[in-house]
């Protein structure tokens, strides 16, 4: 297993694979997601730097949409665990909330520090007649709903703020399934994940998520 993983990493870093990845594979994936947007008559595909929104990099990371196919897989796992409410941290244009609604989640929450992104998210959800409780604020000031909840995090927070959020979640009475998608930090949680999702994309790059159950 270790040798296989090492081979994958070496293969992914090779010049020919990287050229194919950036010139063919990733543009093809983006095209599929744009087609999914077109089918729903929304636009959620974007890559936005914090500076474009008037924030510094210390306040958060860039906004990037998660693939539709990946969202379906990781949110189906959460749904099968019995959860029906979702909070998306750094909700951006609202793609995870859209997919969650399609999978049968009944209560949807989104929080983002950018009013520009919240407005775009609200616009997309209204077009699809999806109801969600959206908040434009810093996560440190956000009142987390007091219910069993799935929380989706895609690198929206720096490590110190993620650690602070985890401590806050540990003090809640309700149960939480925290999905850390493509995690940036090695060990932000003081316990092991209950499940790990991995997709190696034919050795070109790694996409994954770790699922942590809190309380």
Give a written overview of the molecule.
- The protein is an alpha/beta fold.
- It has a single domain, classed as Rossmann fold.
- Helices cover 39% and strands 20% of the residues.
- It has six helices and nine strands, in the order H-H-E-E-H-E-H-E-H-E-E-H-E-E-E.
- The strands form two sheets. It has a seven-stranded mixed sheet, covered by helices on one side. Strands 1-2 form a two-stranded antiparallel sheet.
- Helix 3 packs across helix 4.
- The longest helix has 26 residues.
- 29% of the residues are buried.
- The model has no long low-confidence stretch (mean pLDDT 89).
Question: How would the blueprint of this fold be written?
Answer:
Layout lengths: L1 H12 L1 H26 L6 E2 L14 E2 L3 H13 L4 E5 L5 H8 L4 E6 L2 H13 L5 E4 L12 E5 L5 H12 L5 E6 L13 E5 L7 E8 L1
Parallel strand pairs: 3-4, 3-6, 4-5, 6-7
Antiparallel strand pairs: 1-2, 7-9, 8-9
Helix pairs in contact: 3-4
SSE string, helices as H and strands as E: HHEEHEHEHEEHEEE
List the uncertain runs.
none
Could you say which structural class the secondary elements and strand pairing correspond to? Answer: alpha/beta
Helix content: 25-40%
Essential attributes:
215 residues, alpha/beta, Rossmann fold, seven-stranded mixed sheet, two-stranded antiparallel ribbon, 9 strands
Question: How do you describe this structure in short?
Answer:
By secondary structure, the chain is of the alpha/beta class.
